[in-house]
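User: I'm putting together a small comparison set for a docking exercise, and I want a reference complex before I start. The sequence is below, and the ligand is adenosine monophosphate. Could you produce the 3D structure with the ligand included, as structure tokens?
Assistant: Of course. I'll restate your input first, then give the structure tokens for the complex.
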Amino acid sequence: MSSFQTSPGTRDILPPHAGRWRALIQVFADGVESAGYQNIIPPLFEDLGVFQRLGDATDVVTKEMYDFMDKGGRHIALRPEHTASVCRAFAQHRPTPPWKVWYSGPNFRYERPQAGRFRQFDQVGIEVLGVDDSQLDVEVISLGWDFYQAIGLSNVSLVINSLGDAGDRGRYIEALGAYFTTHSETLSEQALATLERNPLRVLDSKRPQDASAIAGAPAIGAFLSTDAAAHFAAVCAGLDALNIPYVVNERLVRGLDYYQRTTFEFISGSLDSAQNAVGGGGRYDGLVEDLGGPATPGIGFALGVDRTLLACDAEECFSYGFPALDVFVIDTTGGSYALSITHQLRHSGFSADRAFEGRSMKSQMKSADRSGAQVAVIIGDTEAEESTCTVRNLSTSEQTTIPSTELQSHLVSVLGPRQPRRHTP
Ligand code: AMP
């Protein structure tokens, strides 16, 4: 007999934690939908080429991709993030811009699993395609900020930077390359390999050996064009106007290659510093074009659900309790009467669970207490014969027997009105 465990870097999100997870996504959805963002659900896997556009100097592309040949000979990858898929969707379907979308779902990266770093992890995020306005940058950042406030996280800080336009970035990368080459004897082996591929990425190194070279490296600010500098100043002014506190960090380059102009990260002060980024994003004005669409400005962010909840644990906020059931049905007859009573209760909008296997009254009462339900509806032989039911208030232990035709109105008087369960568009 074999027994299996979850694969490294993956985990089961069990109840009640999965309920908390879903509640978190609901808070996010409520916030961004009230700002005009609509839900998009891209596929979990795509042609590898879609994700290669993230940049061949990024770890996500070179080392962490879950890719495979499918049975039709296509080179497929599980998505490592959503932005490339959203841009591919835009290029494919050509919706009318501005296109404001939000998403939630798992991503896959073959990383070294550790606290707050998983191989399957979830993100919620937004993307806006087709708007080149610094006020939108402020809107996007503020929606991320507001989400953390809404779930009660107070120890989150916002770090922002501008990477300039493609030309600024090119000149900056050249200057960085020259600088790190002259300091190559102090760099770690890994940083030297990164330097070959993209000098910008060297700034991401967390190795102590690289710290002094990084500290003396040229900063992007001096390389910004007039336009890019004005855009960044306008973003900062907008955040000031909304009283959103931020820190400018000219070393913030973010892990993916496609960012231009505004980049930002949300950092939790309650998590271990190696995995303290709870979210991040930025402007990416060339990605849609790279994926075969028209030249389209884009901006967005992705927030890590796993890490955000770890930060909530650390700050003891966003606690979650499974909503209490209305009714627990106890049945000692084993007949279809209890079955249809339970069914009707659920259709009338009451949440209802029941016992099975015709266990003893005592054992079913225990289950009713454990369920957290407010009321037990007891069906015994007499009730089944006379089409009645006995309703027991589980907190006061008062009970009364009524005709089953009066059950719904009786429960409304005890528990309050409920909406019948039916889809209303
Ligand atoms: P990125 O797509 O790399 O910009 O990541 C955005 C956010 O997703 C990060 O700030 C993290 O909160 C989260 N994240 C990224 N990679 C992982 C991972 N391997 N495990 C858990 N969370 C992650």
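The first strand starts at residue 38 and ends at 39. The chain has a mean pLDDT of 93.
User: Thanks, that's exactly what I needed.
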